[in-house]
Specification:
- The complex is a heterodimer.
- Helix content of chain A is 0%, strand content 50%.
- Chain A has no helices and eleven strands.
- Chain A has strands spanning 4-7, 10-13, 19-25, 31-37, 43-49, 56-57, 64-68, 74-78, 87-94, 103-104, 108-112.
- In chain A, strands 2, 4, 5, 6, 9, 10 and 11 form a seven-stranded mixed beta sheet that branches. A four-stranded antiparallel beta sheet of chain A has the order 1-3-8-7, with no helix packed on it.
- The relative contact order of chain A is 0.33.
- Helix content of chain B is 0%, strand content 50%.
- By secondary structure, chain B is mainly β.
- In chain B, strands 2, 5, 6, 10, 11 and 12 form a six-stranded mixed beta sheet that branches.
- In chain B, strand 10 (88-96) and strand 11 form a beta hairpin.
- Chain B is globular, with a radius of gyration of 14 Å.
- The chains are: A mainly beta, B mainly beta.
- The A-B interface holds A 30-31, 33, 35, 40-45, 48, 50-51, 58-59, 88, 90, 92, 94, 96-104, 106-107 and B 4, 33, 35, 37, 43-45, 47, 50, 52, 91, 93, 98-110.
Chain lengths: 113, 117
Amino acid sequence: NAGVTQTPKFQVLKTGQSMTLQCAQDMNHNSMYWYRQDPGMGLRLIYYSASEGTTDKGEVPNGYNVSRLNKREFSLRLESAAPSQTSVYFCASSDLLSNSPLHFGNGTRLTVT
Amino acid sequence: AQKITQTQPGMFVQEKEAVTLDCTYDTSDPSYGLFWYKQPSSGEMIFLIYQGSYDQQNATEGRYSLNFQKARKSANLVISASQLGDSAMYFCAMREGQNTGFQKLVFGTGTRLLVSP
């Protein structure tokens, strides 16, 4: 089982460029999430999708858009990248049980210069 | 106010000893869930243990146990018999409210654990 797969693993962008981070899960989970991790700040929720067809803002949504393409796939788009978006991005998924943990992908390290 | 507070930026422990990583949380919701994750230097996030607010007993998973003190709003992770492979960053996280089908977790800033031979 692949679990949660994120692409790419690394990316360098110039300020103003756009890109889409891809995420797919093969665990038939309903919910998917995008987090960013910055040094000393833990993980912060950017957007989440409770189920196919719905998306909602998390704690730090500014500068990002998301698409829940189908049950498996949840993408994160940076329309005009800024240096403040330099971070490690994690996609995660979970099922419906109350004790269900988030299953994370391996992360995308993004640098914006 | 911080929802999750991990006051120990770094901890050191010798191999085979036990170590406690602190986590306090802040919520007024009677229903919540607490999670611990491990992040090794390779970067992946590994789920360790879960405690629900209504669980009567402290959660245990192998060498991991959760010292859950509800009145003090603390959920400390105890690792028994530390191993070199336990060296990693450890995150405490909380879901507030009933699980309505998704888990919006709020994470602490983490504690870096170093296990020495």
